[in-house]
Amino acid sequence: MFPKKEAQLPSWASIPSVVPNKVVAAAPAERKIELYSTEYYITCGLGGVASCGLTHTAVTPLDVVKCNMQTNAAKFPSIGTGFSVIVKEQGLAGLFKGWVPTLYGYSAQGAFKFGLYEYFKKTYADMAGPEMGKKYQSVIFLAGSASAEFFADIALCPFEAVKVKVQTIPGFAKGISDGLPKIISTEGVSGLFKGVAPLWGRQIPYTMMKFGAFENTVVALYKYVVPKPKSECSKGEQLGVSFGAGYIAGVLCAAVSQPADNLVSKLNATKGATVGDIVKEMGIYGLCTRGLPLRIVMVGTLTGLQWGIYDAFKVAFGLPTTGATEEKKK
Q1: What is the pLDDT of residues 179-188, one digit of tens each?
Q2: Which residues of the chain fall short of a pLDDT of 70?
Q3: CA-to-CA distance for 177 and 161, rounded, in angstroms?
Q4: What percent of the chain has pLDDT over 70?
Q5: Cβ(283)–Cβ(207) below 8 Å
């Protein structure tokens, strides 16, 4: 009798999202990721993979020279000499030795570092409560980053052990496929983790500075430098702030973690060496300064790029860039 009329169901995009006590961020294609949900932390972890894995692999030539300067200062007394000696003896390919364990190791580290940082930062802030959380915000940044890095370094350590040996011991191995079993066969599984304590000594202060300095620098830039509130800045402008704050944090990171970086390189390159042996050989001044100029350039650029990539990854999934803001002083 009457023409049939097809029922039109509302599209998901037209249904308002109502999630009690949850903050929701919009993502591309109308997807929504709840802030501080499991999906949110997984997304942040994947951002960490892209951030750390890609950047550390990209600067492998600098890392090769740095590690050789730290383990054999007589043969590699300067940055220029380091590059020329390696290219002369091993060709250009020598500058890229260890790139596979670098990619695997720092991808794993990045996933734990960034994913767990977001988790611990939220957890500790909730434990402190709104008033105490705001008052001790910097302490929460430091505690959250230290907690995350503890686990991140356990994931990194086996790959770091292989990387350093491949880069500094001629003929040791071509990469991770033959380097990993070689260490296990000669030193046991414990040989892969003998550098974990110095790694904690290097990376935990580094990461505390990386996240603490970054978060506070972001606040300062929006408060005193950027001429408009964060909410009025474009995504490109916000990512520019992320890179700038990351570079500043990176320079501070390099200085704080340099002694432990030298220890890690020497321990992994020298079989049977102890922390005491290396301190005696290099001295306090050498531990603090050997390879530092190159590492400042490397880590500053690296950290700036990492924060830029990480926040760009978050933005691509509809999440806000990292860092709280305060109102500008009038």
Answers
A1: 999 999 999 9
A2: 1-31, 324-330
A3: 13
A4: 88
A5: no
Q: How many CA atoms lie within 13 A of 326 on its CB side?
A: 15
Evaluate the CA torsion angle 130, 134, 140, 141 in order and state its sign. Answer: positive
CB atoms under 10 Å from CB of 117, counted, come to 26
Full-model pTM? 0.78
3-state secondary structure of 35: coil
Orientation of helix 292-316 relative to helix 60-71, angle to 10°: 150
What's at 9, amino acid-wise? L
Token representation of residue 323: 């860092």
Q: Which helix (H) or strand (E) holds 34?
A: strand 32-34
Residue type for 97, please? K
DSSP secondary structure of 204-260: HHHHHHHHHHHHHHHHHIIIIISSS-GGGS-HHHHHHHHHHHHHHHHHHHHHHHHHH
